[in-house]
Amino acid sequence: VSTNTNDIATLDGRVTTEVGTLNTRVTNEVSTLNTRVTNEVGTLNTRIDGVDTTIAGIDGRVTVNTNDIAALQNGLGNVSASAVIYDSAAKDTVTLQGVSGTKITNLKDATLDANSKDAVTGKQLHATNN
After folding, report:
1. How far, in Å, CA of 98 to CA of 91, rounded?
2. Cα separation, 20 vs 36, whole angstroms
3. Phi/psi of residue 68, nearest 5 degrees
4. Which of 42, 55, 72, 89 is 20 to 30 Å from 78 at the Cα level?
5. Which Gene3D superfamilies match (predicted)?
6. What tens digit of pLDDT does each residue of 28-82 get?
7. What are the DSSP calls for 69-90, one per residue?
8. Quick check: 74 and 83 in contact, CB under 8 A?
9. CB 118 within 8 A of CB 110
């Protein structure tokens, strides 16, 4: 009985030591895991903040583009697809697109003098030929 009692006491001591060792290891592992999770959450939050900032920037640019488009539309007003426009930004030529030529009507009489660059109307030409 005394041998068994000593063996049981020794076994109990070893079990207590191992339980303590396991508790320490589990506590350390949980602490390490908690630190890793906290760090990863911090990294994710930083990335999410960056994405939020990027989205806010894109939203701002979309708003600017929307406002610019609205301003262009307002500036154009009711210009139709058949409007006469210059051939280039130099604004030195206008080519009319009529298949058989284009008649321009309701013109004001031109100034007829040596420095005039006005187009002559049919009425003025008729007057010079009579």
Report:
1. 20
2. 24
3. -65, -40
4. 89
5. 1.20.5.170, 1.20.5.340
6. 999 999 999 999 999 999 999 999 999 999 998 999 999 999 988 887 777 777 8
7. HHHHHHHHTT--TT----SSTT
8. no
9. yes
* Residue 107 near residue 119, CB atoms below 8 Å: yes
Residue extents of the structural domains in the chain:
2-102
Residue keyed to tokens 């660059």: 117
The answer to whether 93 and 86 have CB atoms below 8 angstroms apart is: yes
| Encoded tokens for 51 | 């994405």
Can you spell out the DSSP letters for 28-68?
HHHHHHHHHHHHHHHHHHHHHHHHHHHHHHHHHHHHHHHHH
87's tokens: 């051939």
Q: Burial, 39: exposed, middle or buried (Cβ in 10 Å; 0-12, 13-18, 19+)?
A: exposed
Instruction: Please give the Cα distance from 85 to 95 (Å, whole number).
Output: 8
The H or E element that residue 12 is part of is: helix 2-76
